[in-house]
Design a protein that fits this description.
This protein has about 350 residues and is an alpha/beta fold. It is about 35% helix and about 25% strand. It is built from 13 helices and 13 strands. The strands form three sheets. It has a six-stranded mixed β-sheet. A five-stranded mixed β-sheet has the order 10-9-8-11-12, sandwiched between helices. Strands 5-6 form a two-stranded antiparallel ribbon. Strand 9 and strand 10 form a beta hairpin. Helix 7 crosses helix 10 and helix 10 packs across helix 11. It is globular and about 65 Å long. The two termini are about 35 Å apart. About 45% of the residues are buried.
């Protein structure tokens, strides 16, 4: 079988606002798809950009238009610096997720900024981006999109669990790939630990000192979303409406909030495991040792935290892969996952042709 190679840069920014993840990856198609991470880097957001992105959900249309332009320019600078810093010359395409500002699929709304055509001109590369919009237009949730990568790149695992701003899970059920958001994770934990002047709770050490508040835990576990069937997804707006007001109504210490919410996360995630096997855990939450230990205590699964490159850059890798599939006009979004009317190949391609 003839092998085909692609060299792409995957670019991802998640709801945790940790920064912009970039990964330069070789994808090779033989009997199966394989990947090799060649270079990787996370570029942290400035405090000003964190403020803008966290407040943008309440921006007016005009403010969002300006923000989209500014963020596209920021991405261009970050991507160009990455290319030049590692002297990368062989690039098939740059595959960028952008940053999600609005995600209300039930209203037909999803907005990822940084996906403007000018990005291709600024970085002088072909860009593949805006992967979610088409799925929402086709009646889908527009999320999660990573499961096609789980299916084709990480098939040896029974479950792929991502612990980012939200937890989401991907698995096979009756011969079909299913995936959905389970519950908030870092988007809540970081919000409260930042009130102590910290960026995040390293290894969950602060959460481990708290006491579970049974009333709050029961109230969290009773939220309607957890009774809904997949496909389903979560966004910042949902957290602001359903989680923060509920937690704040109990007037607890930060330590007790963190401890209670970690227990909530572990309970919600462990309840999703219906078959015994291997669970691949990635995302920033994989470093929350206390949460991982609570997950292990609540389940019989083999919880596997891989090397740091995969933990931190799995989503950038897979969005690079989504771009490769889009170039090949192959399905990169699964209807069984998002609820769209059919499987489809999603993403906008902005070609850049170098002039010599």
């Amino acid at each position: 079988m003839e092998s085909v190679e692609y060299y792409v840069i995957g670019v991802m920014s998640g709801t945790s606002l940790d920064g912009i993840d970039l990964a330069y990856i070789q994808f090779k198609k033989e009997e199966h798809w394989n990947y090799n991470i060649i270079h990787k880097e996370t570029v942290a957001y400035t405090s000003e950009w964190k403020r803008k992105l966290s407040k943008a959900v309440n921006f007016t249309t005009n403010q969002l238009t300006v923000l989209n332009e500014e963020y596209t320019s920021l991405l261009a600078t970050v991507i160009t610096d990455f290319i030049e810093g590692y002297a990368i010359s062989n690039i098939t395409a740059v595959c960028s997720h952008g940053h999600t500002i609005l995600h209300q699929p039930e209203k037909g709304i999803t907005l990822q900024i940084g996906n403007l055509e000018k990005l291709a001109k600024l970085i002088q590369q072909t860009v593949i981006c805006d992967f979610r919009v088409q799925d929402v237009q086709m009646g889908g949730q527009g999320a999660p999109l990573v499961p096609i990568g789980d299916k084709l790149l990480f098939a040896e695992y029974n479950y792929c669990l991502n612990l980012g701003g939200f937890s989401n899970i991907s698995t096979e059920l009756s011969g079909k790939r299913i995936a959905y958001d389970i519950c908030p994770v870092n988007i809540v934990l970081n919000h409260y630990v930042q009130q102590l002047g910290l960026v995040y709770d390293a290894e969950g050490k602060i959460a481990a000192t708290g006491i579970i508040h049974v009333g709050l835990l029961e109230a969290l576990n009773s939220i309607d979303y957890y009774q809904q069937q997949f496909p389903k997804s979560l966004g910042l707006e949902w957290v602001q409406q359903n989680i923060f007001p509920l937690i704040d109504s109990y007037h607890l210490s930060i330590e007790d909030i963190l401890r209670t919410f970690v227990e909530h996360i572990a309970m919600q995630i462990s309840s999703q495991f219906t078959q015994k096997g291997k669970v691949l855990v990635t995302g920033g939450g994989a470093y929350h040792i206390f949460l991982i230990n609570r997950l292990r205590a609540m389940s019989t699964q083999q919880i596997i935290v891989p090397d740091a490159a995969l933990v931190e850059f799995k989503e950038a890798i897979i969005f690079g892969f989504l771009g490769v599939l889009r170039m090949r006009n192959e399905n990169n979004v699964l209807a069984s996952v998002t609820g769209a009317s059919k499987n489809h190949s999603s993403g906008v391609i902005f070609h850049y042709k170098k002039s010599y």
